[in-house]
């Protein structure tokens, strides 16, 4: 049976959601973050990088949420969550499947890191400088790039229910995490289509079951 090594507040929420959509049996091994919000060292016994998600079955170990999603969807084609190359929406499917981690998520991670800089241990007289520098980098460089990506997604979803074609695909599962992260750290009132999309996927039974089993994807 497949085991999901699930770290709280992580991309492994995607894996639980997909497994619920596929109706596959699986086990969850839960891991809690450290006080520094890092993965615990126990995960290094599962995979050398010590990151989550990781899935194991038989003598196999697979990391990287995108790779896990694609493997599961490709090995269960009857579910229709991985589009074939001859599907008219295949190009859109590929774009959003990769844009989630290749374009949007790096900016969200950078914002999180810089917002934590002023909270790190440092001499008291350095803290105001660190706070000022962090706020300047976020305000003038990072946030504008996040806004650009959210504006693109907003325009894409204005007249669409899903990211690729007229039904839910793996692209939606992949895009869910950065959008949940953006929602947790910013006001999305400027992006009503994005908010409506998040509300829509949160109502899906498989998504709700993933929440019940693994907790919220973001703090």
From TrEMBL:
Chain ranges of the GST C-terminal domain? 86-219
Using the record's annotation, list all stretches that form the GST N-terminal domain: 1-80
Reaction catalysis annotation = RX + glutathione = an S-substituted glutathione + a halide anion + H(+)
Q: Cellular component GO terms, alphabetically?
A: cytoplasm
Q: Which InterPro entries match?
A: Glutathione-S-Trfase_C-like, Glutathione-S-Trfase_C_sf, Glutathione_S-Trfase, Glutathione_S-Trfase_N, GST_C, Thioredoxin-like_sf
Query: Under what name is this protein listed?
Result: glutathione transferase
Is Kinase one of the keywords UniProt gives this record?
no
Name the EC number(s): 2.5.1.18
């Amino acid at each position: 049976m497949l085991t999901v090594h699930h770290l709280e507040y992580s991309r492994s929420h995607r894996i639980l959601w997909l497994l619920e959509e596929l109706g596959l049996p699986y086990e969850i091994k839960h891991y809690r973050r450290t006080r520094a919000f890092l993965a615990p060292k126990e995960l290094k016994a599962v995979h050398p990088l010590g990151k989550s998600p990781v899935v194991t079955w038989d003598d196999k170990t697979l990391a990287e949420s995108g790779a896990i999603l694609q493997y599961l969807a490709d090995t269960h084609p009857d579910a229709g969550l991985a589009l074939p190359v001859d599907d008219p929406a295949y190009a859109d499917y590929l774009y959003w499947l990769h844009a989630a981690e290749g374009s949007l998520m790096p900016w969200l991670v950078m914002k999180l890191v810089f917002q934590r800089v002023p909270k790190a241990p440092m001499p008291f007289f350095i803290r105001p400088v660190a706070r000022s520098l962090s706020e300047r980098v976020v305000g003038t460089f990072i946030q504008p790039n996040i806004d650009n990506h959210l504006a693109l997604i907003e325009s894409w979803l204005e007249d669409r229910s899903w990211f690729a074609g007229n039904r839910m695909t793996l692209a939606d599962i992949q895009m869910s995490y950065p959008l949940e992260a953006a929602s947790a750290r910013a006001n999305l009132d400027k992006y009503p289509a994005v908010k409506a999309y998040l509300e829509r996927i949160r109502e899906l039974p498989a998504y709700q079951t993933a929440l019940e089993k693994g907790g919220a994807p973001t703090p």
